[in-house]
Structures are given as structure tokens and as C-alpha cells.
Amino acid sequence: NTIDLYCVGRTSVHVVNGKTVMVNNNTGTVEDGKIIPLSSGKIQLQSEGSELFVKTIQIKPIKEIPAGVL
Predict the structure, then answer these.
(1) What pTM was computed for the model?
(2) Per-residue pLDDT for 39 more than 90?
(3) Number of H helices, E strands in the chain
(4) Radius of gyration of the CA atoms of the chain, in A
(5) Segments making up each domain of the chain, as ranges
(6) Pairing between strand 11-16 and 28-31?
């Protein structure tokens, strides 16, 4: 499987084997009753506590979501 994850600002697009499967807009977290934008921070690849096997990871800076994935 090939997974592409595009993140720009508060938008992320998840593409699996060339097909867009999820789009998140205006992502944020709530702290003290205020919404804090999730526009920077750590990259987390697995959060369910199980193993994750990865052959290759490439991280590249982008300024916009590529045409055709939205």
C-alpha cells in the first residue's frame, strides 16, 4: 500500500493507493475552552498502540494541496 498525507495549514488530505479517503479541515484541539489550531507540531504515524511497519518515508515541504487530490 502507498499512503500520501498532505498537510497545509489546518487542512490534511489522506490518500491511499491513489484514492482520497479522508479530508480534515479546520483541525484543532480544545484547551481551557478555546480552540487551538493544529497547524504545527509532531508527526504521529500510529496512535493505537500496535506495531507499524514502514519501508520508506519521505517528508517534503509543500505550500498547497496538490491539484486532483481534493
Answers:
(1) 0.82
(2) no
(3) 0, 5
(4) 14
(5) 1-39+50-62
(6) unpaired
